[in-house]
Amino acid sequence: MKAENVMSVRATLDALRQGDITSYDLTKACLQRLEALNGCLHAFLTPTPELALRQADEADRKYAAWRQDPSIELPPLLGLPMAIKDVLAQSGVRCTCGSKILENFIPPYTATSVERLLRAGVVTVGKTNTDEFAMGSSTENSAYGPTHNPWNLECVPGGSSGGSAAAVAARIVPAALGTDTGGSVRQPAAFCGVTGLKTTYGRVSRYGLVAYGSSLDTVGVLAQSAEDAALILPHIAGRDPRDATSMDLPVPSVRLDQASVQGLRVGVPKEYFIDGIQPEVEQGVRAAIEAYRQMGAQIVEISLPNTAYALPVYYLIAPAEASANLARYDGIRFGPREEGERMWEMFFNTRGKRFGAEVKRRIMLGTYALSAGYYDAYYGQAQKVRTLIKHDFESAFNEVDVIAAPVAPTTAFRIGQHSGSPLEMYLEDIFTLPANLAGVPGIAFPVGFDSQGLPVSMQLMGPHFREDALLRAAHAYQQATDWHLQIPEGLDRKDNQ
């Protein structure tokens, strides 16, 4: 199957309803493409071909019944193949979180976001690769090996939702679920040239999402376009009694047929265009901002003065929450056990051998920040500065409707380029962390290419629960450009080998 034959979500659903294709044939073609490309991309950890074909067969039976009796109400995403990031549980399907400590974990429950997709008729073709417990910016921290960028196999796809982004970019599936704790939907979307929607904290239930940073984790969508993301969002969003942080707000149904940015106030924060940013990234983002001006938007220079503190604040709060969340993986409650003569030796052996280096690093950072004598000086202070960052966004949204900025300071870097310097890797998230700390939504989408042929992307951030405004603004740009329609070259030659 050629990449161009994997259609958008809208086109796929239309073709299924019209009977131009069957879900079974479409799913089989996606699985064949997965098998052909996964050797070079390593986007999937656990393909689920038998489950997917059963789901597709059931979808076709529902379509057949509907054609006999059009009064039957069909699930809205019936027969659509999707991939799931391997930190979201699906009952009966292995969930590793990219870690050896959950190597053979098969959850008996399903994440609410996945459950709602299944209820909407989605076909799940497999679980995608991720940095271990979603801790990383490149998918190199996966215990099962890195994912490769479809645009250049020597480069990273971003992280931690790198497997999902690569699967969509390579047109293995029309869309995928990811998660975003510090940029893990938007940054891989940017590196892989697809559209990535980070939802507002509380918009989508976190039940069944294996926790990393509980006050930061969000579930998001990776797709070919803003229109595709808009079609999926209503079916994962909404209140869930199993997650006390999920908000009881109307589930958005986003109308894009008349999307316009005429009069839209687009804020451009000066703190996001800093020394060290790759010139082609800045040029691409500024050109996209100018395109918004040409389409009738009002461009307003703004300031988010506490942006510089986002990186240290995040790397105190997120590791502290990770330290608490990952305490359960001790060989007794969860995970395989490494034996020791005494209980503490068993703990040390299990966690020492089964956790990767980055997870250990963050657990130690977090444990230190929470320890007696340091809690107020580090974790407590970080929470106070987090409040200032949140107030920056609230003040800005009194002046503008959306904020436009780069997603990352560079395009996709080479595998291993930052392996010797954790700080260099952390700096890749410098433009995405503030949205997570403030809890606001964001969307990343391609706006060009650099001289190496790697995607350049921009992000828009909006007020809490205004995903609709972001999707409309991104869609308006994508109606005027074709960057999101570009497909990586060379992969189909591998498909045919």
From TrEMBL:
Q: What's one Pfam family here?
A: Amidase
Matches recorded under InterPro entries: Amidase, Amidase_CS, Amidase_dom, AS_sf, GatA
Q: What GO molecular function annotations does the UniProt record carry, in alphabetical order?
A: ATP binding; glutaminyl-tRNA synthase (glutamine-hydrolyzing) activity; transferase activity
Enzyme active site: K85, S160, S184
EC assignment:
6.3.5.7
In Gene Ontology terms, what is a biological process of this protein?
A: translation
Q: Which GO terms describe its cellular component?
A: glutamyl-tRNA(Gln) amidotransferase complex
Q: Which domain of life is it from?
A: Bacteria
* Domain Amidase: from-to ranges: 25-471
* Entry keyword annotation includes ATP-binding: yes
Which transformation does this protein catalyse, written as a reaction?
L-glutamyl-tRNA(Gln) + L-glutamine + ATP + H2O = L-glutaminyl-tRNA(Gln) + L-glutamate + ADP + phosphate + H(+)
Which keywords annotate this record? ATP-binding, Ligase, Nucleotide-binding, Protein biosynthesis, Transferase
The record, for PANTHER family, names:
GLUTAMYL-TRNA(GLN) AMIDOTRANSFERASE SUBUNIT A (PTHR11895:SF151), TRANSAMIDASE (PTHR11895)
- Role according to the record: Allows the formation of correctly charged Gln-tRNA(Gln) through the transamidation of misacylated Glu-tRNA(Gln) in organisms which lack glutaminyl-tRNA synthetase. The reaction takes place in the presence of glutamine and ATP through an activated gamma-phospho-Glu-tRNA(Gln).
Give the family this protein belongs to, as stated in its UniProt record: Belongs to the amidase family. GatA subfamily.
**Subunit info?**
Heterotrimer of A, B and C subunits.
Q: What is the protein name given in its UniProt record? A: Glutamyl-tRNA(Gln) amidotransferase subunit A
Query: The organism's lineage?
Result: Bacteria, Bacillati, Chloroflexota, Anaerolineae, Anaerolineales
